[in-house]
Amino acid sequence: MLQLVVTILFWTAVLAALVAQARILQSTRRVLAAVPARSALEWGFALVPAAALVLTLVLAWRAAVRPPVIEVELPAAPGEVRS
Fold first, then answer.
1. How confident is the model at residue 37 (pLDDT cuts 50, 70, 90)?
2. What's the pTM value of the predicted model, to 2 decimals?
3. Better-predicted residue by pLDDT, 82 or 65
């Protein structure tokens, strides 16, 4: 049940972030069509955060679906040597 909640919340956040980023890129394209003087620099300021967003979402998803790690300390048996 908890994994389902995590999945739904994650993909809702992804959808919201991607819609917002698409609107930013659309706005940048519209402004650059009117004033193309610094188009490469402006596209850089729009695309670098988009790439960082994608990387962040991929790493967050990997962390969210990683199986939990449980460490268990077992007592040593009589005469057993552990390093």
1. low
2. 0.62
3. 65
Task: Please name the amino acid found at residue 62.
Answer: R
78 in helix, strand or coil?
coil
Helix 2-34 and helix 39-65: axis angle, to 10°? Answer: 180
Cα 77 to Cα 71, 81, 83, distances in angstroms? 18, 9, 13
| Predicted pLDDT at 36 | 66
Other CB atoms closer than 10 Å to residue 83's CB: what's the count?
2
Residue of 52, 55, 51, 75 lying closest to 63 (CA atoms)? 55
What was the pLDDT predicted at 55? 93
Q: Is the dihedral of CA 40, 33, 17, 66 positive or negative?
A: negative
Write 22-31 long-range contacts (CB < 8 A, 24+).
24/49, 24/50, 25/50
